[in-house]
Amino acid sequence: MGNLKRTHYCTEVSLQDVGNEVVVGGFTQRQRDKGNLIFIDLRDRTGIIQLTFDDTTDREVFDKAKHVKSEYVLLAKGIVKKRESVNTEIKTGEIEIFVTELRVLAEAQTPPFHINDNGKVNEEIRLKYRYLDLRRSELQKNIMMRHNIAKVTREYFYENGFIEIETPMMIKSTPEGARDYVVPSRVHNGKFYALPQSPQIYKQLLMISGYDRYIQLARCFRDEDLRADRQPEFTQIDLEMSFVDIDDILAMGEGYVQRLFKDVLDVEIPLPLPRMTYKDAMERYGSDKPDTRFGMEIVDLSEIVKDCDFSVFTGAIADGGSVRAIVAKNAAGELTRKAIDKLTEYVRGIGAKGLAYVRWADEAPNCSFGKFMKESELEAILSHIGCEKGDVAFIVADKNKVTLPVLGSLRLTVAKQLDIIPEGFNFLWITEFPFFEFDEDSQTWVAMHHPFTMPMDECIDLLDTDPGAVRAKAYDLVLNGTELSSGSIRITNYKLQQKMFAALGLTEEEIEAKFGFLVNAYKYGAPPHGGMGIGLDRISMIMCGAETLKDVTAFPKVQNASELMSECPSVIDEKQLDELGICIKTKEVTE
């Protein structure tokens, strides 16, 4: 056959090629032997095309086709013909290739599962044989869309004057909010590098260095518990800008998502994107990353019930908390008493002491706390929260740090149960985050974002007197209830940075040890700057309509941060440990 070279991907062949000779290559999706007629569905990353062999085919080619099995790798040369019967399920369903030459490039064992999009196969098996799972068209579409997202990302930021600069992968360990993955040094025995949780410090140094618009698709690493939208290693669209304020950075981010969704999905994202303060988001939705595609907003009942006879409500208010509610409209039919009992157990599991409810299925509402209420008081509650016949209201009374997030989680759970969340893309900026949050374990104030975040100008005087009231020039981009991006304006004033460190309880020695090189850099002149990191994996997951990050990551980790295919992490031999000066101390596992 000589040098047979592929000329077309499978779905590049079209009606315009009828009568022409083409060469395609790929994997065998399936082979159908009809005696004097053989069909092979050939699959590559673009899709499927049918190869045809009949009694006019060269006998050697026909015999070779007869022995082809699933997942054999083929190269086929032939003439494009119109099919007698159209297959509407594939893009190339109007044509086929009548094969004149066939090369079997590789045979294949029977795979542990059939390579298709509909097979119900255990996820662990798919991940163990990930190289086979990645042949599925569904995953290939996701991986290729992720590539397209990265391509559009680079184009947009290049066009807006950004410079792509790589930052180190082995850095100094600094506090960033999660545990570091560490790398032992052979040369510097007993010392360790850390893998970056983000390129935060380096991109600030680049601003001090005069590279006023930086961009990087940066690999980041965080040793934290995994979820559907979290992997231990991930890619961040990392950017920083000098001589800007919040509006400049948000406008750049808005232009990016508008361009991205138009180029990749042909979806128009109207600008400007809505903004909401952290305080409003928590009070209305019980979350700093609210899904605003549906209502069911939280309503404060404290004023209405402060003088009632129900001690659960009045006790929470007297203790400095609040009484708040959400209303599921027209849900009384689906949210039965049994369903409400399950929801009560759910909220207890996430911190609530209990769940009061009103279920208005009949003429009179069924109220779990009705015997403690005067009729006029109950009417005032229902009127205030907008609860009508057919609705179900849920009420939680506790400290705000419990009431708000519990109702926020319950709101999402009920909405999913009722299937009332519409399709679409709802972007939202969350602004004015608290600068500090109080850590109950250490009984100290810690930075909610990172210690380089600039406080709001009007809050600087509160640093010493009321840390809990300090708001930050920080912002998150939220899409459909998922945090896509986090960013802030950075502190560039040396004295203010020292004040912030002091407010966090860091000593001079700790500041020098952890951040000395950055603090010293500020002494040589730093332009005002800020930026953000956008999760490439998360935005890919949402744009692909995927359930988890595993569906947009080529080789993902599972819940315990291991990779089933390569079986990492793994032990290393004694020689390597000796070179690194490391002795393994085995942890005792207790039941």
Any chance you could write out the topology, listing elements then pairs?
Blueprint: E1 21-33, E2 38-44, E3 47-53, H1 59-66, E4 73-82, E5 95-106, H2 123-128, H3 130-133, H4 137-159, E6 163-164, E7 182-184, E8 192-194, H5 200-208, E9 213-221, E10 233-242, H6 246-265, E11 275-277, H7 278-285, E12 299-300, H8 302-305, H9 311-318, E13 322-328, H10 337-349, E14 356-359, E15 366-367, H11 375-385, E16 392-398, H12 400-418, E17 427-431, E18 436-439, E19 444-447, E20 474-479, E21 482-489, H13 494-503, H14 508-522, E22 529-535, H15 536-544, H16 574-580
Parallel strand pairs: 3-5, 6-9, 11-17
Antiparallel strand pairs: 1-2, 1-4, 2-3, 4-5, 7-8, 9-10, 10-22, 12-13, 13-16, 14-15, 14-16, 17-20, 18-19, 20-21, 21-22
Account of the 3D structure:
The protein has 591 residues and is α+β, with helices and mostly antiparallel strands. It folds into three domains: 97 residues, Beta Barrel (OB fold (Dihydrolipoamide Acetyltransferase, E2P)); 275 residues, BirA Bifunctional Protein, domain 2; 128 residues, Gyrase A, domain 2. The protein is 29% helix and 23% strand. The protein has 16 helices and 22 strands. The strands form five sheets. Strands 6-9-10-22-21-20-17-11 form an eight-stranded mixed sheet, sandwiched between helices. The protein has a five-stranded mixed β-barrel with strand order 1-2-3-5-4. It has a five-stranded antiparallel sheet with strand order 12-13-16-14-15. Strand 20 and strand 21 form a beta hairpin.
